Amino acid sequence: MVKKLLSALFLLGTFMAAAQNLHTQSNAASIENESDATTGWTGLGVITSDNTEAQTGNFAIRVESTANNGRTLQYTFNATVGVDYTIQIWAKQGPQVTNNNDPAFANWSGFSGFSTTTINNTDWVEYVFNVTATATNPIIRVYTSPYQFRFTAGNTVIIDSVSITADGSDTENPSAVSDLSSSNTTDTTTDLSWSASTDNVGVTNYEVFQDGVSIANTGTTTNFNVTGLSPSTGYNFTVFAEDAAGNTSAVSNTETVNTLADSQAPSAIADLSSSNTTETTTDLSW
User: Fold this and answer.
1) Which residues pair with 130 in a beta bridge?
2) How far apart are CA 226 and CA 205, in angstroms?
3) Domains of the chain: which residue ranges?
4) Is the pLDDT of residue 9 over 90?
5) Within its chain, how far is the Cα of 59 from the centroid?
6) Which pTM value belongs to this model?
7) Is the dihedral angle over the CA atoms 215, 218, 221, 225 positive or is it negative?
8) How far is it, in rounded angstroms, from Cα 146 to Cα 127?
9) Residue span of the signal peptide, if any (predicted)?
10) Which of 57, 87, 242, 281 has the highest CB neighbour count under 10 A?
11) What average pLDDT does range 125-152 have in this prediction?
12) CATH of the domain spanning 181-258
């Protein structure tokens, strides 16, 4: 019995270790080990730690193009050939000197299932790649600009909150939402909001339930406007957090909403008319 228990604990420990984020270095884009550094990331662009544009925490990694074809930022990790990986990277455009520039995730090597993806937003966006390793040291690459602008300095990309996990290895549930609340309730609507859940890799979706029935998936947005409610009625709302591996949090606190009474009178009819009138009948319409 003791041997079985020890074996079970050993396997559990091994499995949990495998579930760790493979973006292991302590740097500005790390989820678990953030620091004011760029350790592990290399390339031909000017790579720095940025403390003004963080998506989470205090720092992000910034890459800026040079005038001599320095436009790349890259990262490699130890992979197992044939294993599927989920790679999640938050990214945004920084300052640009080239009009209509198209920075992108491009030219990844050692993977199948990857396709070039443009970074076309100046706000933070989470990019999720589901790929299969074809080499033991695959390479993730970010380009500040396409080939035709390779001699243009000053185009920038900023990345943060990088996670790399082998599919099936992440078994940790996100934390439960504990502060679901409502506001601006009317006779037919209410606004729900909550604080972000935490996860060892990253939350990818929140699912909203009304009286036990799913009504919305909000992605990473932590608020939702509920419509179509009935006046003078009570409703119970809850939220679950989910990560990319399909792990789901425990249920949130229950927020009970009582809609207001319907106090708005119908509009007055303004076009009442009659037709086909006889000595004893008439047809009314409006």
Assistant:
1) 86
2) 17
3) 20-166, 181-258
4) no
5) 18
6) 0.60
7) negative
8) 19
9) 1-19
10) 87
11) 96
12) 2.60.40.10
Model pLDDT for residues 141-163, shown as the tens digit of each residue: 999 999 999 999 999 999 999 99
| In the block, residue with structure tokens 């859940």 | 197
Rounded to an integer, the average pLDDT of 247-257 is 96
* CATH topology classification for 20-166: Jelly Rolls (2.60.120)
Label each residue of the chain as H, E or C: CHHHHHHHHHHHHHHHHHCCCCCCCCECCECCCECCCCCCCECCCEEEEECCCCCCCCCEEEEECCCCCCCEEEEECCCCCCCEEEEEEEEEECCCCCCCCCCEECCCECEECCCCEECCCCCCEEEEEEEEECCCCCEEEEECCCHHHCCCCCCEEEEEEEEEEECCCCCCCCCCCCCCEEECCCCCCEEEECCCCCCCCCEEEEEEEECCEEEEECCCCCEEEECCCCCCCEEEEEEEEEECCCCECCCCCCEEEECCCCCCCCCCCCCCEEECCCCCCCEEEC
Which amino acid is located at 227 in the chain?
T
